[in-house]
Amino acid sequence: MSVNLSDIAAMGGIAKWALVSLMVPKGTGLASLDKLYEGFNRVCSTHKLELVGGDTVLSPKGLGIHITILGEIPKKGWFSRSDARPGDKIFVTGSLGDSALGLKILKSRRVWKGLKKDLGFLVDRHLNPHPRTEESKLLSGLAQDMGGMIDISDGLLQDLNHLCYASKVGALLEEDSLPSSQPFVNITANNKCDPSELTLYGGEDYELLFTFRSENVKNLLYRFQKAGKRLTQIGVVTSRSGQITLIEPGGNRRIIRNPKGFNHFSG
Question: What secondary structure letter does DSSP report for 258?
Answer without folding.
Answer: S
